[in-house]
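Figure S7 source data.
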Amino acid sequence: MNEDMRYVDFHTHILPEMDDGAKDLSESLEMLRLLREQGVGAVCLTPHFYPYREGPEDFLERRQRSFSLLLPRARELGVRLVPASETFFTDTVLNLPDLSALCMRDAQGRRYLLTELPFSSSFSARTLDRISRLMGVHGVVPVLAHIERYPKLFSDAGKIDELIEMGCLMQMNLEALDGGFFQKRKALRYIRDNMIHVVGTDSHNTRTRPPAYLPGITAVERALGKEAAAQLSANARQIISGSLADGA
Ligand SMILES: [Fe+2]
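Tokens for the predicted fe (ii) ion complex:
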């Protein structure tokens, strides 16, 4: 692998005109360029999917239109793209016939769904039960998005462990490593203890939520060593290995 493109950004809103992310193709390209400069060689495209607002067919049709605009330009930049989603988890999701196109896929065909919950979620027994049903009904691995944004979850290592035991994976935004002292310390401890599996910028634009990959990953490298940082991208590459094989 080219060392200059060793990182994977697992969570972005870079697709043009898709959600509250990039407003047009030129902003998308600027975001990709910024990531490329920071050593990111593969980018997961995870636009918001709110199943109570639109059906999966409409969402996927919009995503395909947006993706086909971006793909040829990303190839010019040498950045690999993986079309996926950040799916807001409601009971509606349990009733959808098929989540495959919303997911990322590994080389064995296992599917992974970047899953968002309400920030107010207390991760009660009921919520854990619904997450377990998501896995049972659809056979997907939930990757819980930006876990640092759920106060009840991020402050409770036991709860994170319980979810991992169930078979969930944890995604953290790199900005958590740029936050206050206590948040950063906790984030580093979770990475050290393999409780964070993948990281991303969750970037939305070039101004207020830009693709800032390097500050966070450099903090990991300084505190825990280069291998710990490399492991996060290795995990991501494993998760998207089947999707990348599609030639995006
Ligand atoms: Fe997001």
